[in-house]
Amino acid sequence: MSKVWLVLVALPLMAEEPVSFQKQIRPILARQCAACHQPASKQSELLVTTYDGLLKGGRKGAAFVAGKPDESVVIGYLTGKTSPQMPFGGKPLAAEQIDLFKRWILEGAKNDSPPENLDLTTLKPAVYYAPPLITALAYSPDGKMMIVGIAKELPLFDSVSGKPLSTLKHKSGLLGCRFSPDCQSLLCAGGGDGATLWDLKSKKSQLLEHGAYGAEFSADGTLIATAGDDNHVMIWKAKGDPVTTLEACKDTVFHVAFSPNGKRLVSIDSSGGVRLWDTKDWKLLGESRVAPATAGAPTPSWYPDSRRFAVGGDKMIAVYDV
Ligand code: HEC
Fold first, then answer.
1. Is residue 256 part of a domain?
2. Of 29, 43, 90, 291, which cross-links 48 as Cys (Cβ 3.0–4.6 Å)?
3. d(CA 81, CA 111)
4. Which domain holds residue 101?
5. Model confidence over 29-57: pLDDT tens digits?
6. Cα-flanking dihedrals φ and ψ of residue 61, to 5°?
7. Which of 21, 71, 86 is the best mutation target for the ligand 1 pocket, counting ligand atoms within 8 Å of the beta carbon and taking the most?
Protein backbone atom coordinates (compact mmCIF):
# COMPACT_ATOMS: atom_id res chain seq x y z
CA MET A 1 0.00 0.00 0.00
CA SER A 2 2.71 2.48 0.96
CA LYS A 3 4.52 1.75 -2.30
CA VAL A 4 1.52 2.81 -4.34
CA TRP A 5 1.43 6.04 -2.41
CA LEU A 6 5.06 6.74 -3.19
CA VAL A 7 4.53 6.32 -6.90
CA LEU A 8 1.49 8.58 -6.91
CA VAL A 9 3.29 11.36 -5.09
CA ALA A 10 6.54 11.07 -6.97
CA LEU A 11 5.10 11.14 -10.48
CA PRO A 12 4.18 14.81 -10.80
CA LEU A 13 7.58 15.81 -9.44
CA MET A 14 9.47 13.60 -11.85
CA ALA A 15 7.37 14.83 -14.73
CA GLU A 16 8.36 18.46 -14.06
CA GLU A 17 10.51 19.60 -16.95
CA PRO A 18 13.68 21.56 -16.29
CA VAL A 19 13.26 25.32 -16.75
CA SER A 20 14.10 26.38 -20.28
CA PHE A 21 16.15 29.56 -20.71
CA GLN A 22 14.83 30.09 -24.23
CA LYS A 23 11.16 29.40 -23.55
CA GLN A 24 10.67 30.61 -19.98
CA ILE A 25 13.46 32.95 -18.89
CA ARG A 26 14.14 34.85 -22.11
CA PRO A 27 10.55 36.03 -22.63
CA ILE A 28 10.52 37.53 -19.11
CA LEU A 29 13.84 39.26 -19.74
CA ALA A 30 12.61 40.57 -23.09
CA ARG A 31 9.38 41.95 -21.66
CA GLN A 32 10.46 43.23 -18.25
CA CYS A 33 14.17 43.91 -18.40
CA ALA A 34 15.45 44.44 -21.94
CA ALA A 35 14.27 48.06 -22.17
CA CYS A 36 17.10 49.06 -19.80
CA HIS A 37 19.63 46.27 -20.36
CA GLN A 38 20.27 46.14 -24.11
CA PRO A 39 22.92 47.49 -26.48
CA ALA A 40 21.35 50.98 -26.84
CA SER A 41 20.70 51.41 -23.09
CA LYS A 42 23.00 49.24 -21.02
CA GLN A 43 22.19 50.09 -17.37
CA SER A 44 24.98 49.05 -15.01
CA GLU A 45 26.79 47.53 -18.07
CA LEU A 46 24.39 44.57 -18.08
CA LEU A 47 22.95 43.05 -21.29
CA VAL A 48 20.02 40.66 -20.83
CA THR A 49 19.22 40.16 -24.52
CA THR A 50 21.52 37.12 -24.81
CA TYR A 51 22.74 34.30 -22.57
CA ASP A 52 26.33 35.49 -23.02
CA GLY A 53 25.28 38.95 -21.83
CA LEU A 54 24.01 37.51 -18.54
CA LEU A 55 27.06 35.30 -18.17
CA LYS A 56 29.36 38.26 -18.63
CA GLY A 57 27.16 40.29 -16.30
CA GLY A 58 27.36 43.95 -15.36
CA ARG A 59 29.40 46.01 -12.90
CA LYS A 60 28.85 43.37 -10.23
CA GLY A 61 30.11 40.56 -12.45
CA ALA A 62 28.24 37.51 -13.82
CA ALA A 63 24.48 37.79 -13.30
CA PHE A 64 24.27 34.16 -12.13
CA VAL A 65 26.37 31.41 -10.58
CA ALA A 66 25.23 28.09 -12.09
CA GLY A 67 23.75 25.86 -9.37
CA LYS A 68 23.75 28.62 -6.75
CA PRO A 69 20.70 30.89 -6.88
CA ASP A 70 21.51 32.40 -3.47
CA GLU A 71 24.89 33.62 -4.69
CA SER A 72 23.54 34.91 -7.99
CA VAL A 73 23.50 38.68 -8.48
CA VAL A 74 20.28 38.60 -10.52
CA ILE A 75 18.29 36.79 -7.80
CA GLY A 76 19.36 39.38 -5.22
CA TYR A 77 18.03 42.16 -7.47
CA LEU A 78 14.81 40.30 -8.33
CA THR A 79 13.88 39.52 -4.72
CA GLY A 80 14.86 42.98 -3.51
CA LYS A 81 17.57 41.59 -1.20
CA THR A 82 19.90 43.84 -3.18
CA SER A 83 18.46 47.25 -3.88
CA PRO A 84 17.19 48.82 -6.04
CA GLN A 85 14.83 45.90 -6.76
CA MET A 86 14.47 44.99 -10.45
CA PRO A 87 12.70 45.79 -12.69
CA PHE A 88 13.90 49.25 -11.67
CA GLY A 89 11.00 51.59 -10.86
CA GLY A 90 8.46 48.90 -11.82
CA LYS A 91 6.35 46.24 -10.12
CA PRO A 92 8.50 43.33 -8.84
CA LEU A 93 8.18 40.11 -10.82
CA ALA A 94 5.53 37.62 -9.65
CA ALA A 95 6.84 35.11 -7.09
CA GLU A 96 6.40 32.30 -9.66
CA GLN A 97 8.59 34.16 -12.15
CA ILE A 98 11.32 34.70 -9.58
CA ASP A 99 11.04 30.98 -8.74
CA LEU A 100 11.62 30.16 -12.43
CA PHE A 101 14.87 32.14 -12.35
CA LYS A 102 15.92 30.36 -9.14
CA ARG A 103 15.09 26.93 -10.52
CA TRP A 104 16.83 27.63 -13.81
CA ILE A 105 20.02 28.61 -11.97
CA LEU A 106 19.70 25.68 -9.53
CA GLU A 107 19.38 23.29 -12.48
CA GLY A 108 22.70 24.53 -13.84
CA ALA A 109 21.66 27.68 -15.77
CA LYS A 110 21.77 25.84 -19.09
CA ASN A 111 21.59 27.72 -22.36
CA ASP A 112 19.06 26.08 -24.68
CA SER A 113 18.68 29.04 -27.02
CA PRO A 114 19.43 28.21 -30.65
CA PRO A 115 22.64 29.52 -32.22
CA GLU A 116 21.97 32.90 -33.83
CA ASN A 117 22.79 31.78 -37.33
CA LEU A 118 21.27 28.34 -37.32
CA ASP A 119 20.98 26.70 -40.73
CA LEU A 120 17.21 26.38 -40.82
CA THR A 121 17.22 24.05 -43.83
CA THR A 122 18.66 21.23 -41.69
CA LEU A 123 15.90 21.18 -39.06
CA LYS A 124 13.81 17.98 -38.92
CA PRO A 125 10.13 18.16 -39.82
CA ALA A 126 7.96 19.20 -36.86
CA VAL A 127 5.45 16.78 -35.35
CA TYR A 128 2.10 18.22 -34.23
CA TYR A 129 -0.14 16.62 -31.61
CA ALA A 130 -2.96 19.14 -32.08
CA PRO A 131 -3.91 21.55 -34.88
CA PRO A 132 -1.19 24.21 -34.77
CA LEU A 133 -1.85 27.89 -34.09
CA ILE A 134 -1.49 30.05 -37.20
CA THR A 135 0.49 33.18 -36.36
CA ALA A 136 1.16 34.54 -39.85
CA LEU A 137 -0.57 34.36 -43.21
CA ALA A 138 0.20 36.02 -46.54
CA TYR A 139 -0.77 35.81 -50.22
CA SER A 140 1.82 36.54 -52.85
CA PRO A 141 1.12 39.78 -54.76
CA ASP A 142 0.43 37.75 -57.96
CA GLY A 143 -2.20 35.77 -56.05
CA LYS A 144 -0.58 32.42 -56.89
CA MET A 145 0.89 31.40 -53.54
CA MET A 146 -0.10 31.46 -49.91
CA ILE A 147 2.25 31.07 -46.96
CA VAL A 148 1.05 29.94 -43.53
CA GLY A 149 3.14 30.52 -40.42
CA ILE A 150 2.75 27.81 -37.77
CA ALA A 151 4.92 26.67 -34.87
CA LYS A 152 8.16 25.79 -36.63
CA GLU A 153 7.21 25.61 -40.28
CA LEU A 154 6.06 27.76 -43.14
CA PRO A 155 4.07 25.63 -45.56
CA LEU A 156 3.73 27.26 -48.97
CA PHE A 157 0.54 26.48 -50.91
CA ASP A 158 -0.68 27.00 -54.44
CA SER A 159 -3.49 29.41 -53.59
CA VAL A 160 -5.70 28.27 -56.48
CA SER A 161 -5.51 24.48 -56.12
CA GLY A 162 -4.66 24.48 -52.41
CA LYS A 163 -1.83 21.99 -53.11
CA PRO A 164 1.28 22.22 -50.93
CA LEU A 165 4.28 23.49 -52.90
CA SER A 166 7.03 23.26 -50.29
CA THR A 167 7.73 23.86 -46.63
CA LEU A 168 10.23 26.31 -45.21
CA LYS A 169 11.49 25.87 -41.66
CA HIS A 170 11.84 28.47 -38.97
CA LYS A 171 12.54 28.49 -35.25
CA SER A 172 9.63 30.00 -33.34
CA GLY A 173 7.55 33.02 -32.51
CA LEU A 174 6.71 34.15 -36.03
CA LEU A 175 4.57 37.30 -36.13
CA GLY A 176 4.26 38.14 -39.80
CA CYS A 177 5.30 37.28 -43.38
CA ARG A 178 5.50 39.36 -46.56
CA PHE A 179 6.21 38.33 -50.13
CA SER A 180 8.44 40.66 -52.14
CA PRO A 181 6.54 42.49 -54.91
CA ASP A 182 8.26 40.25 -57.52
CA CYS A 183 7.23 37.13 -55.52
CA GLN A 184 10.85 35.87 -55.48
CA SER A 185 11.50 36.32 -51.76
CA LEU A 186 9.72 36.07 -48.47
CA LEU A 187 10.34 38.21 -45.42
CA CYS A 188 9.28 36.97 -41.99
CA ALA A 189 9.59 38.57 -38.58
CA GLY A 190 8.95 37.44 -35.05
CA GLY A 191 10.35 37.74 -31.53
CA GLY A 192 12.08 34.35 -31.48
CA ASP A 193 13.31 34.25 -35.04
CA GLY A 194 14.23 37.80 -35.79
CA ALA A 195 13.75 39.04 -39.34
CA THR A 196 14.51 36.33 -41.88
CA LEU A 197 14.72 36.75 -45.65
CA TRP A 198 14.08 33.72 -47.86
CA ASP A 199 15.00 33.21 -51.46
CA LEU A 200 12.00 31.19 -52.62
CA LYS A 201 13.84 29.53 -55.48
CA SER A 202 16.88 28.25 -53.57
CA LYS A 203 14.93 28.00 -50.24
CA LYS A 204 17.97 29.58 -48.57
CA SER A 205 17.35 31.90 -45.66
CA GLN A 206 19.32 34.73 -44.19
CA LEU A 207 18.87 36.17 -40.70
CA LEU A 208 18.75 39.94 -41.10
CA GLU A 209 18.19 41.05 -37.55
CA HIS A 210 18.01 39.03 -34.37
CA GLY A 211 15.02 40.10 -32.28
CA ALA A 212 12.92 41.94 -34.86
CA TYR A 213 9.15 42.25 -34.45
CA GLY A 214 8.23 43.67 -37.85
CA ALA A 215 9.66 43.73 -41.37
CA GLU A 216 8.39 45.22 -44.61
CA PHE A 217 9.43 45.58 -48.25
CA SER A 218 9.15 48.94 -49.97
CA ALA A 219 6.45 49.00 -52.68
CA ASP A 220 9.02 48.68 -55.49
CA GLY A 221 10.78 45.86 -53.62
CA THR A 222 14.20 47.53 -53.59
CA LEU A 223 14.36 48.08 -49.83
CA ILE A 224 13.55 46.25 -46.61
CA ALA A 225 12.99 47.81 -43.18
CA THR A 226 13.15 45.76 -39.97
CA ALA A 227 11.78 46.83 -36.58
CA GLY A 228 14.19 45.82 -33.84
CA ASP A 229 13.95 45.09 -30.13
CA ASP A 230 16.95 47.30 -29.34
CA ASN A 231 15.20 50.54 -30.25
CA HIS A 232 16.20 50.84 -33.85
CA VAL A 233 15.02 50.37 -37.40
CA MET A 234 17.42 48.76 -39.84
CA ILE A 235 17.31 49.32 -43.58
CA TRP A 236 18.47 46.67 -46.05
CA LYS A 237 18.72 46.24 -49.80
CA ALA A 238 16.31 43.71 -51.32
CA LYS A 239 18.92 40.91 -51.15
CA GLY A 240 19.77 41.58 -47.52
CA ASP A 241 22.81 43.91 -47.69
CA PRO A 242 22.65 46.46 -44.86
CA VAL A 243 22.06 50.12 -45.83
CA THR A 244 21.74 52.01 -42.55
CA THR A 245 20.39 51.97 -38.98
CA LEU A 246 17.85 54.52 -37.75
CA GLU A 247 18.55 55.21 -34.09
CA ALA A 248 16.09 57.81 -32.76
CA CYS A 249 13.46 55.43 -31.35
CA LYS A 250 13.09 55.32 -27.56
CA ASP A 251 11.60 51.84 -27.25
CA THR A 252 11.35 48.45 -28.92
CA VAL A 253 10.13 49.08 -32.46
CA PHE A 254 7.11 46.96 -33.38
CA HIS A 255 6.12 48.06 -36.87
CA VAL A 256 7.48 49.78 -39.95
CA ALA A 257 5.62 50.82 -43.12
CA PHE A 258 6.89 52.37 -46.33
CA SER A 259 4.60 54.88 -48.08
CA PRO A 260 3.24 53.54 -51.39
CA ASN A 261 5.41 56.03 -53.33
CA GLY A 262 8.47 54.83 -51.39
CA LYS A 263 9.45 58.30 -50.17
CA ARG A 264 8.63 57.90 -46.49
CA LEU A 265 8.88 55.28 -43.77
CA VAL A 266 6.83 55.23 -40.56
CA SER A 267 7.97 53.39 -37.45
CA ILE A 268 5.92 52.63 -34.34
CA ASP A 269 7.46 51.70 -31.02
CA SER A 270 6.05 49.87 -28.02
CA SER A 271 5.25 53.05 -26.09
CA GLY A 272 3.31 54.51 -29.03
CA GLY A 273 6.17 56.59 -30.46
CA VAL A 274 5.39 57.38 -34.12
CA ARG A 275 8.29 58.48 -36.31
CA LEU A 276 8.41 59.57 -39.93
CA TRP A 277 11.61 59.13 -41.94
CA ASP A 278 12.74 60.38 -45.32
CA THR A 279 13.92 57.40 -47.39
CA LYS A 280 16.26 59.60 -49.48
CA ASP A 281 18.70 60.52 -46.70
CA TRP A 282 17.06 58.62 -43.77
CA LYS A 283 16.57 61.87 -41.80
CA LEU A 284 13.93 61.92 -39.09
CA LEU A 285 11.17 64.24 -40.37
CA GLY A 286 8.91 64.19 -37.34
CA GLU A 287 7.89 62.42 -34.13
CA SER A 288 4.61 62.04 -32.31
CA ARG A 289 3.00 59.74 -29.80
CA VAL A 290 -0.27 57.83 -29.57
CA ALA A 291 -1.57 56.05 -26.47
CA PRO A 292 -0.54 52.46 -27.19
CA ALA A 293 -3.43 49.99 -27.47
CA THR A 294 -3.51 47.51 -24.59
CA ALA A 295 -4.07 44.60 -26.99
CA GLY A 296 -0.74 45.21 -28.72
CA ALA A 297 1.17 47.88 -30.54
CA PRO A 298 -0.67 50.03 -33.05
CA THR A 299 -0.03 49.27 -36.73
CA PRO A 300 0.52 52.01 -39.28
CA SER A 301 -1.35 52.00 -42.59
CA TRP A 302 -0.76 54.39 -45.50
CA TYR A 303 -3.42 55.98 -47.72
CA PRO A 304 -2.84 55.12 -51.37
CA ASP A 305 -1.90 58.77 -52.12
CA SER A 306 1.10 58.58 -49.69
CA ARG A 307 -0.01 61.87 -48.12
CA ARG A 308 -1.54 60.47 -44.97
CA PHE A 309 -1.15 57.46 -42.75
CA ALA A 310 -3.24 56.08 -39.92
CA VAL A 311 -2.07 54.56 -36.62
CA GLY A 312 -4.29 52.60 -34.26
CA GLY A 313 -3.99 53.46 -30.57
CA ASP A 314 -5.96 52.92 -27.37
CA LYS A 315 -9.65 53.33 -28.42
CA MET A 316 -8.67 55.74 -31.19
CA ILE A 317 -7.15 55.99 -34.66
CA ALA A 318 -4.72 58.83 -35.32
CA VAL A 319 -4.46 60.07 -38.90
CA TYR A 320 -1.31 61.99 -39.79
CA ASP A 321 -0.98 64.39 -42.69
CA VAL A 322 2.61 64.24 -43.92
C1 HEC B 1 13.77 51.03 -16.03
C2 HEC B 1 15.08 50.47 -16.21
C3 HEC B 1 15.39 49.08 -15.72
C4 HEC B 1 14.65 47.94 -15.88
C5 HEC B 1 13.30 47.77 -16.58
C6 HEC B 1 15.43 46.87 -15.31
N7 HEC B 1 16.60 47.36 -14.82
FE8 HEC B 1 18.09 46.27 -13.95
N9 HEC B 1 19.13 47.99 -13.59
C10 HEC B 1 18.71 49.25 -13.89
C11 HEC B 1 19.59 50.23 -13.25
C12 HEC B 1 19.46 51.74 -13.32
C13 HEC B 1 20.57 49.47 -12.57
C14 HEC B 1 21.70 50.00 -11.68
C15 HEC B 1 21.12 50.09 -10.29
C16 HEC B 1 22.07 50.56 -9.22
O17 HEC B 1 23.01 49.82 -8.94
O18 HEC B 1 21.82 51.64 -8.70
C19 HEC B 1 20.26 48.07 -12.82
C20 HEC B 1 21.04 47.02 -12.35
C21 HEC B 1 20.72 45.68 -12.55
C22 HEC B 1 21.56 44.59 -12.14
C23 HEC B 1 22.93 44.69 -11.51
C24 HEC B 1 23.96 44.63 -12.62
C25 HEC B 1 25.38 44.82 -12.15
O26 HEC B 1 26.16 43.87 -12.30
O27 HEC B 1 25.66 45.91 -11.67
C28 HEC B 1 20.91 43.44 -12.46
C29 HEC B 1 21.39 42.01 -12.26
C30 HEC B 1 19.67 43.84 -13.09
N31 HEC B 1 19.59 45.19 -13.13
C32 HEC B 1 18.73 42.93 -13.56
C33 HEC B 1 17.51 43.32 -14.07
C34 HEC B 1 16.46 42.38 -14.40
C35 HEC B 1 16.56 40.87 -14.29
C36 HEC B 1 15.42 43.12 -14.84
C37 HEC B 1 14.05 42.61 -15.26
C38 HEC B 1 13.32 41.83 -14.31
C39 HEC B 1 15.82 44.51 -14.82
N40 HEC B 1 17.07 44.59 -14.34
C41 HEC B 1 15.02 45.56 -15.26
C42 HEC B 1 17.62 49.59 -14.67
C43 HEC B 1 16.62 48.71 -15.03
1. yes
2. 29
3. 26
4. 19-106
5. 988 898 888 877 789 999 998 899 999 99
6. 90, -170
7. 86
